[in-house]
Design a protein that fits this description.
It is a single chain. By secondary structure, this protein is an alpha+beta fold. It is 18% helix and 26% strand. The strands form 3 sheets. Strands 4, 5, 6, 7, 8, 11, 12, 13 and 14 form a 9-stranded mixed β-sheet that branches. A 3-stranded antiparallel β-sheet has the order 1-3-2. Strand 11 and strand 12 form a beta hairpin. The chain is globular, with a radius of gyration of 20 Å.
Length: 306
């Protein structure tokens, strides 16, 4: 299924505008809006239309995210290097431990050096050749575990497990402040922020269901170490939800997390993946320890709290 970059409803103040004019702000420029419309990536009430089409109140606009398929300057067959380690592998799938700084798959602004390209020839499955085998993603500066398929059949099966919430994804995060409850669930729809189009938030015109569960592992002086699990998988979900409850992830400057203890990126690590093997049904349970930079920050936080 194609990824949606932006979606929204035409309001009273925008009625009568050309479609490219209406999309100029959320897409960054009128020229880019016109290009995406011309590429057939914009639908108005489910139909592709021309850029000069005038929009009406209540019409639904959906913009499909660009893939490298719309980027002729890129070479999808050319592998590139990216750091990673293999935490588990068999004939059907690979569980990869991704370091911070590595982008999972090519996108505009990150055409090379991605994990998907580094796995070329080993990973397979899915409709997009630029994301072959990719089942779920991690942000560039989030470290930890992802599962990658080696065939279409396994890719479909893993997607089904994800949809059925049988693929457990657990994260460790150090947040600002200490939540008042030992555990809890954040149930708040997420979409692109109404004002900051590069960010996601619960203040959105295009909300999508999102639920995050957390457990307090270690209260410190002004911080808390949490175990977090995802029930859904929206873009930046943990970062958005922790900000929404007033406990942003440390080091996450985009979402208001202070950079303490020498952190140069968000303290967020995908620490565990557990799921039934899509072919055999055997339990797969893989863990990843905190990388050195996050462990060092945690030790400094512990020392301050002592």
């Amino acid at each position: 299924m194609a990824e949606i970059e932006w979606e929204g409803t035409v309001g009273d103040d925008a009625a009568g505008q050309r479609l490219d004019q209406f999309l100029a702000e959320p897409l960054g420029s009128r020229a880019r809006a016109a290009r995406l419309i011309g590429a057939g990536l914009v639908r108005l009430d489910g139909r592709t239309v021309q850029k000069r089409r005038l929009v009406n109140v209540g019409e639904q606009v959906v913009v499909t995210a660009e893939t490298l398929g719309q980027m002729p300057e890129s070479d999808p067959a050319h592998p590139s290097s990216a750091d990673f380690t293999v935490a588990y592998e068999d004939d059907a799938l690979i569980v990869v431990d991704k370091p911070a700084g590595v982008v999972v798959h090519p996108a505009r602004g990150h055409e090379g050096g991605t994990l998907a390209q580094a796995l070329a020839g080993r990973a397979a499955g899915g409709e997009d050749p630029y994301r072959a085998g990719i089942v779920h993603r991690l942000d560039r500066d989030t470290s930890g575990l992802l599962v990658i398929a080696k065939s279409d059949a396994v890719h479909r099966a893993l997607k089904d497990l994800l949809q059925a919430r049988l693929l457990s994804r657990e994260y460790l995060t150090l947040v600002d402040g200490i939540p008042p409850a030992h555990s809890g669930t954040i149930d708040a729809p997420i979409g692109r922020d109404r004002r900051e189009r590069l960010l996601h938030s619960i203040d959105t015109d295009a909300p999508r269901e999102a639920r995050t569960h957390f457990e307090l592992l270690e209260p410190l002086r002004h911080e808390a170490l949490l175990r977090v699990s995802l029930e859904t998988g929206r873009t930046h979900q943990i970062r958005v939800h922790m900000r929404a409850i007033g406990h942003p992830v440390l080091g996450d400057s985009a979402y208001g997390g202070p950079a303490r203890f020498g952190l140069e990126r968000q303290f967020l690590h995908a620490a565990r993946l557990a799921f039934p093997h899509p072919l055999t049904g055997d339990a797969i349970d893989v863990s990843s320890p905190l990388p050195a930079d996050l462990q060092a920050a945690l030790e400094l936080a512990r020392a301050e709290a002592a």
